[in-house]
């Protein structure tokens, strides 16, 4: 990106409201041409087959199957991608069949769509696969009731499934050649972030590494959990991620001693990074060091170099908790039926879909299924702020509709439409990684062109689409957002308390090197921080009157991260020569953190912690005291945010 464009983007970022902030950020570094090419090829191939058969509209349903399935492909291990794409494709096919069977049945159609919306809301709580399946189930039910595709519902559903299988085949084309490509790339990305951390020890560098590390764990463990028996290569990748976490903690410990990391160790980490990316075997550090922090850093870097070169893997290197199928199903069931947020979301979605369906039966809108489709897409709890999505979708659809109108005016009906269809399909993955508005700007003309292949509606389709989308956004804002105060704010307070509790659990076991669960507890603590940051980032995209209360949590979040970092750095020193703390002093810290978490949940000011005066825990004690003072100072905003 040029310096001029970057400066302009920075000025826009400072001036833009939260719900437009993502629109001026640089494109994500993880974006590759592969997803864009797969989407373009996947969508246009069925249309080309239909064109060769003399009926281009025959490819419409397979193309929709490709879109529905490919939109669930968010990268990661092949196993995770297969689960997500199969869930989305099969649910989409079931949704289309349901919608096609009740198409044109008047109020019975509205009743069925409303019932499907309730089922979709419950399914969406069941993790990433449930979210993808729930969305496509509802979206394709709506499209099945609205798009008049020639032919019986059964064969048409098979066409949709054919497109889903084609999308899956394109996504898995590289599996036979490099079955662990995604896991290897995720570990390499973590080490790239670690190499940058040697030069940038600040909070931004730590956050970048922690994000890459969490992504690495998620990718490798999601693939490892399904491996039959032991998989030495995946176990080595997990061990490398563990080792990178130890290097991070030792770097923090070194910074606390106000020392810079030796050049030899930085070069060694860069060598490990290069080898993971396909370079030569790295050379481990040779010099011995005196201080506990330097010894900890030297030991961690040497361990990473040995692992990258094929050295032995230490026992207990995999920080994950095996979960049986029965327990997993029980957890999903409890989340679906007993979660307060799940119940509230279900009621909101059913209400809005019911009203949208009733409006569609009034005859006020020419293609009213777009109105229901907008409600389904905007009112999705795990996609971020409802307000931001409603505004971004309205603006994105406006821009996309104008583009689609120009295309329909300029490009004649027929094979020539496949060119802009391929372009917009290729841009869809790019828009999905930027924000909801940009994705809508590419999706709107794509859907217009696909529908035009079937109905030959011409430029008038663009006007109809825009009116229906704006009406759907209005229904969401007036019925699914404004009357529900709990939906105005993300639950930052409860997630903050959860992160404090996770830190306390890690601290309780952090100084016991024989504890086999210590690595898992450390990872759970940093996962809780990542979840907290996600909830916070969604909350700040709400309107200013709401987001300004949420931002009072930022100092407390920073203070909590310092507690975890001080703990990890102290552990690194004690494992390499520094005197360990007493059990009583550690328990005093754990009790203080648990008290802070309890007080935040209750909405009261935390009490002053009673900490033991031990030199070994001086930095951790100071960080916990600072956390308490910060939370107490923000208490006027804490109570408001906690209620969200």
Automatic annotation (TrEMBL):
It comes from the Bacteria. Signal peptide: none annotated. Keywords: Cell membrane, Membrane, Transmembrane, Transmembrane helix. It is found in: Cell membrane. Pfam families: FUSC_2. The chain crosses the membrane at residues 39-61, 82-101, 107-126, 133-151, 157-175, 336-357, 369-390, 402-430, 436-454, 466-484. Its main location: membrane. Residues 600-644 are annotated as: Disordered. It is a multi-pass membrane protein. InterPro entries: Memb_transporter_dom. Residues 622-635 have a biased composition (Polar residues). Residues 359-478 form the Integral membrane bound transporter domain. Belongs to the YccS/YhfK family. PANTHER family: MULTIDRUG RESISTANCE PROTEIN MDTO, P-HYDROXYBENZOIC ACID EFFLUX PUMP SUBUNIT-RELATED. This is Membrane protein YccC.
């Amino acid at each position: 990106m040029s310096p001029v464009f970057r400066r302009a983007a920075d000025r826009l970022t400072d001036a833009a409201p939260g719900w437009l902030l993502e629109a001026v950020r640089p494109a994500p570094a993880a974006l590759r041409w592969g997803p864009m090419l797969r989407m373009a090829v996947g969508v246009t191939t069925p249309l080309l087959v239909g064109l060769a058969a003399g009926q281009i509209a025959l490819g419409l349903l397979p193309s929709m199957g490709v879109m529905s399935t490919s939109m669930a492909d968010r990268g990661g291990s092949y196993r995770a991608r297969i689960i997500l794409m199969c869930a989305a494709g099969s649910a989409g096919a079931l949704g289309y069949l349901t919608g096609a069977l009740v198409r044109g049945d008047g109020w019975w159609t509205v009743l069925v769509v409303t019932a499907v919306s309730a089922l979709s809301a419950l399914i969406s709580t069941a993790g990433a696969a449930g979210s993808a399946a729930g969305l496509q189930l509802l979206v394709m039910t709506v499209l099945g009731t609205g798009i008049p595709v020639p032919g019986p519902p059964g064969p048409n559903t098979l066409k949709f499934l054919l497109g889903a299988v084609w999308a899956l085949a394109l996504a898995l084309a590289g599996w036979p050649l490099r079955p662990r490509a995604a896991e290897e790339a995720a570990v390499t990305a973590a080490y790239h972030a670690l190499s940058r951390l040697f030069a940038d020890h600040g909070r931004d560098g730590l956050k970048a590494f922690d994000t890459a590390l969490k992504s690495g764990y998620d990718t490798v463990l999601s693939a490892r959990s399904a491996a039959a028996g032991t998989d030495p290569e995946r176990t080595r990748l997990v061990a490398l991620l563990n080792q990178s976490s130890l290097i991070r903690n030792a770097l923090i410990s070194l910074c606390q001693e106000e020392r810079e990391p030796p050049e030899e160790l930085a070069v060694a980490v860069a060598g490990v990074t290069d080898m993971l990316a396909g370079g030569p075997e790295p050379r481990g550090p040779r010099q011995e060091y005196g201080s506990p922090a330097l010894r900890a850093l030297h030991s961690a870097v040497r361990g990473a170099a040995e692992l990258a070169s094929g050295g032995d893997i230490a026992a207990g290197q995999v920080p994950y908790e095996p979960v049986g199928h029965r327990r997993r199903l029980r957890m999903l069931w409890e989340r679906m039926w007993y979660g307060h947020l799940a119940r509230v979301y279900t009621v909101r979605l059913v209400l809005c879909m019911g009203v949208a369906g009733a409006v569609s039966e009034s005859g006020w809108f020419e293609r009213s299924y777009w109105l229901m489709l907008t409600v389904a897409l905007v009112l999705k709890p795990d996609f971020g702020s409802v307000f931001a999505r409603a505004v971004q979708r309205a603006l994105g659809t406006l821009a996309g509709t104008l583009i689609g109108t120009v295309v329909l005016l300029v490009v004649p009906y027929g094979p020539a439409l496949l060119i802009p269809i391929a372009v917009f399909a290729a841009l869809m993955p790019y828009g999905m990684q930027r924000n909801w508005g940009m994705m809508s700007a590419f999706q709107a003309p794509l859907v217009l062109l696909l529908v035009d292949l079937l109905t030959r509606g011409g430029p008038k389709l663009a006007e109809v689409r825009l009116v229906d989308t704006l009406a759907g956004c209005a229904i969401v804002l007036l019925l699914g957002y404004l009357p529900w105060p709990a939906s105005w704010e993300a639950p930052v307070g409860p997630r903050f308390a959860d992160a404090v509790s996770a830190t306390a659990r890690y601290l309780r076991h952090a100084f016991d090197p024989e504890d086999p669960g210590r690595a898992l507890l450390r990872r759970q603590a940093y996962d809780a921080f990542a979840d907290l940051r996600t909830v916070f980032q969604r909350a700040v995209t709400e309107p200013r009157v709401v987001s300004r209360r949420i931002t009072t949590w930022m100092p407390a979040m920073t203070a909590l991260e310092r507690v975890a970092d001080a703990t990890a750095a102290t552990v690194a020193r004690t494992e390499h020569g520094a005197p360990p703390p007493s059990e009583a002093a550690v328990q005093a810290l754990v009790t203080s953190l648990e008290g802070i978490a309890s007080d935040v949940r209750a909405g009261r000011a935390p009490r002053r912690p009673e900490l033991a005066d031990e030199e070994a825990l001086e930095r951790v004690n100071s960080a916990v005291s600072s956390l308490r003072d910060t939370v107490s100072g923000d208490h006027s905003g804490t109570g408001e945010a906690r209620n969200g």
